Amino acid sequence: MTGRSGPNRRAGLRTVVAAAAAVPLLGMVGASAGRQESRSHGTLPSAPAPPLEVMTFNLRFASRRKPNSWAVRRPVMSALLHRAAPHVIGTQEGLPRQLRAIEADLGPHYDWIGASRAARDDEAVAVFYDTRRLAPAAYEHFWLSDTPGVRGSNTWGAGHPRMVTWVRFRDLRAAGREFLVLNTHLDNASEYARVRAAALIAERIARFDPALPLLLTGDFNSAAHDGTVYDTLLATGLVDTWDTARARGAAYATFHGYKPLIPGGERIDWILATPGVTVHREWIDTFSVDGQYPSDHLPVQASLSL
Fold it and tell me: How far is it between the farthest Cα atoms of the chain?
């Protein structure tokens, strides 16, 4: 919650949803509290911290529909995540039982923060994190509408309520240095809603302490390098980590819909960052088992230093 500090681990949707209605709007009070706390953690260590592994992944909501039911996809998802071993994962479309299953599959060293986007719509943009590396210092949820503090609000004609979950983390391998992760899923149906959402996210980014590194993960339903959504978010000063990476894997369309992959296709799932972030490598993970993909999206992962 805004300005809240200390070990705010949340073991899943069961806790966070109950608190969501009481969460205040992100505002200058929260940003100020973040500034004060970030100054109190002392100097950075002399030895650099190991790279931080960051992933954005649209999970495709859990359904029983064949041939790509969640029961079939879950073991492939588990294998991919264990192989990738990300420290933080910005997820989209996760349902409560699905998120709990992923938590169980990841094992005891992972936790997550998220809230359902509406009372009758359980999808969340949950943020998973490795508790051996990261500890949440504050978190918040806001909705992409004219009333960002109202859970489930949808005023721009989006096909579904849309939201952002942000977490301020302490990096336990870097003397508690703090950074921010914002995770979102923009609307698939309305370009107007996507453009308005991007503008609101840009406005909120401007309220954070500019000294804190910031990562923005998400399924933006808009191609990188093409259109107002991308331009608006980069106008905040963020950079596309795909472009700034020192090394990159092969490019593919990140949405495949369980059809053959498209080399060089549209990248609608991104990781954006403040310019001081060093991206050692970024790739689009095409992992599958016997032709079965874990989702209808490909996850994007970056190995970076803050």
Answer: 53
Q: Which two tokens stand for residue 261?
A: 């992959």
Q: Can you give the pTM of this predicted structure? A: 0.87
Any idea what DSSP says for residue 14?
Answer: H
What one-letter code names the amino acid at 24? P
In a domain, 282, yes or no: yes
Whether 89 contacts 55, CB under 8 Å: yes
Q: How would you write 35-49 as a 3-class SS string?
A: HHHHHHHCCCCCCCC
Does residue 242 contact residue 271 with C-beta atoms inside 8 Å?
yes
Structural domain that includes position 78: 13-39+50-305
Alpha-helix runs per DSSP H in 138-296? 191-205, 228-234, 241-244
Distance CA 177, CA 186 (A): 29
How far separated are the first and last CA of the chain, in Å rounded?
23
Number of structural domains (the chain) is 1
- Beta carbons of 218 and 269 less than 8 angstroms apart: yes
If we measure between CA atoms, which residue out of 239, 238, 302, 230 comes closest to residue 266? Answer: 230
Q: What is the CATH number of the domain that holds 207?
A: 3.60.10.10
Cβ–Cβ contacts within 10 Å for residue 128, how many?
Answer: 25
- pLDDT greater than 50 at residue 14: no
Q: Which token pair is 140?
A: 């918040």
Residues in the chain: 306
Count of other CB atoms within 10 angstroms of residue 146 = 12
At how many degrees (to 10) do helices 13-20 and 96-106 cross?
140
Q: Is residue 289 included in any domain, yes or no?
A: yes
Domain-located, residue 143:
yes
User: pLDDT tens digits, residue range 84-143?
Assistant: 999 999 999 999 999 999 999 999 999 999 999 998 889 999 999 999 999 999 999 999
